[in-house]
Amino acid sequence: MESVTTPRTSNESPVVAATNSAAAKPKNLEKKKAALAHERISYPFWFGGSASSFAACVTHPLDLVKVRLQLRSGDAPKNMSGTFMHIVRSQGPLGLYNGLTASLLRQMTYSTVRFGVYEELKRRSTPEGTKPSLPLLIGLSTFSGFLGGISGNAADVTNVRMQQDLALPPAQRRGYKHGLDGMFRMLREEGVKSWFRGVLPNSTRAALMNASQLASYDTFKSFLITYTPLGDTTTTHFASSLIAGFVATTVCSPVDVIKSRVMSTSHEQGIAHLLREIYAKEGVTWMFKGWVPAFLRLGPQTICTFLFLEAHRKGYRKFKGLED
């Protein structure tokens, strides 16, 4: 009688496979629990502003090119590479860092508030052992972004003006020495209203930025930790921040264009009048003017910001003895 032999489709027996699968599940569960525990830690309020300032040092040249494109006039270059090379040829490599002090001042105000308020409200409004829902994240991030936009508006006006300054004719240049000099000269020469020039589009843009950036980052990060074996790792942080940067650039582009144009002027101009003027001259394409340099700036900035932020958090957990 012939013996029937069952073919083996794998070198691993069903018992071993089941054992490995059972061992993997607790390991993944522990990763998810550890990530959730990290979310419950109360980190210092200033971490967001510090991480954003580090990111600004890396991405400031891209921000400068974006503003120059949004405010271009006459025979100025029409694309990102042309604008970049024009700045380097006319002002040297250091010209790419015009307005850096104002940019850092903006991050220390705007980003400190938007991150700090968001994280504190998220921690207080989420019951222990649960994850916040997407609508809650959007609501909290929108509110904290609006507050951040108001707190950082004066520095933002200074930042836009300093980035644009050397592109103006010599007679129209303001010549701010640094961010604080620009803020206080605006106060002396134009009054306190100048600190709040464009505050509505800026705060609206900040609210949209926060809602699309922070909420999407937390959502995608939670998804990757929950449904993939990656855990709370640098790969997860990088992927989540890249997607968040794409979402934020697209959502914020129209308001970003309006904000730059309002802040660059020294006279009052209604938003409705400005919109009619832009639409008449440029059509609907104005909404995404400078989108590519905006994404090439905001994408790396978002990635750098969250990587620096997660590094801050990891260092804090190690310092406090909370890191495994």
Structural topology:
Layout: H1 14-39, H2 47-70, H3 80-91, H4 100-125, H5 134-151, H6 153-165, H7 179-190, H8 199-227, H9 234-264, H10 271-282, H11 291-320
Helix pairs in contact: 2-4, 2-11, 4-5, 4-6, 5-8, 6-7, 8-9, 9-11
Describe the structure.
The protein has helices at 14-39, 47-70, 80-91, 100-125, 134-151, 153-165, 179-190, 199-227, 234-264, 271-282, 291-320. With 324 residues, the protein is an all-alpha fold. The protein has one domain (44-320): Alpha/alpha barrel (Mitochondrial carrier fold), CATH 1.50.40.10. Residues 1-10 and 15-19 have low confidence and may be disordered.
SSE string, helix = H, strand = E? HHHHHHHHHHH
Specify the CATH homologous superfamily.
Answer: Mitochondrial carrier domain
Strand content: under 5%
Query: What is the number of domains?
Result: 1
- Subunit organisation of the chains: single chain
CATH architecture tag: Alpha/alpha barrel
Computed CA radius of gyration, to the nearest angstrom: 24 Å
Poorly predicted residue ranges: 1-10, 15-19
User: Quick one: biggest sheet?
Assistant: none
Helix content: over 70%
Care to give the gist of this entry?
The chain has 324 residues and is mainly alpha-helical. Helix content is 72%, strand content 0%.
